Amino acid sequence: MAAELQVRRYEEKYLLAPAQAAALQNLLDGVLQRDRYSAEGAYFIRSLYFDTPEDADYKDKLLGVSERKKLRLRLYDVQAPQVKLEIKAKRAKNSHKQSAVLDRSTALALVNGDPTPLLAEGPAARAAYALYQGEHRAPAALIDYERTAWVFPVGRARITLDSHVRASKSDSLFEANVPMVGVLDPMTILEVKYDRPLPPWLGRMLSSIPGAPMSISKYAMARARLY
Question: Which residue, among 99, 89, 77, 100, has the nearest Cα to 1 in the 3D structure?
Fold first, then answer.
C-alpha cells in the first residue's frame, strides 16, 4: 500500500531576478540550514500535471478562482523506482496537499489512461482516482526545474528557490532527454511555506530582497508557453 501524507500550510511566491536570487541565497545560507536534498547544491524535480479536457485547472488559475486544485505525478530521479502522486488544493494563500507514493508501473498506468491500480492503494490514491476518472483527466504538461531549499523548525517553515524552469507537452515521465522549452529563464521563483507566522527577523530578511509577488503558477506559465 502506498505511503500517505497530508500537509496544510500557507504559501507565498515571489519572482526574483538573477542578482536578487543570488543575494537571497547568500543570506539564507548564513542563517538557515539547507534541507538534506540540497546540501550539496540544487536538486532536480520533474512534475507531470493532469488536467481536464476543458483545461479547468489552468483556467481556474488564470481567472483567479479562490478554490482550485492540481493533480500531478512528481519524481526527483528518472531512474527512481517510485513516484509521488499529489493532489494539491489551494484556497487563497492556504494550501492542502495529499500525497501517496506509487511504484513505476502504477504511475505508468495512470499516464497511459488506466487509473484502476490506484484503487488498491490508500485514501489519497483513491481520491486521485475519483478526480482522474470523474473529470476525464489526461497529461497536460511535463515540467522540470532545479530547487534549493532551506528549513526552519519554527512553524515548519520551508523556503525554496526554483530555477531553470522548463516544460514540454510530452508525457514521458521517465525519459531523461525530453525536449523542453524554457519557461522563466533567467528568473527564479522564491516560495515561502509555513504553518505559523515566520519570526520577525526572518520576515525582515526575506522582505529585504525586492522580489515581485507572484500569483501565477509554474503549471500556468508552462501551459501559456506550450500552447
Answer: 100
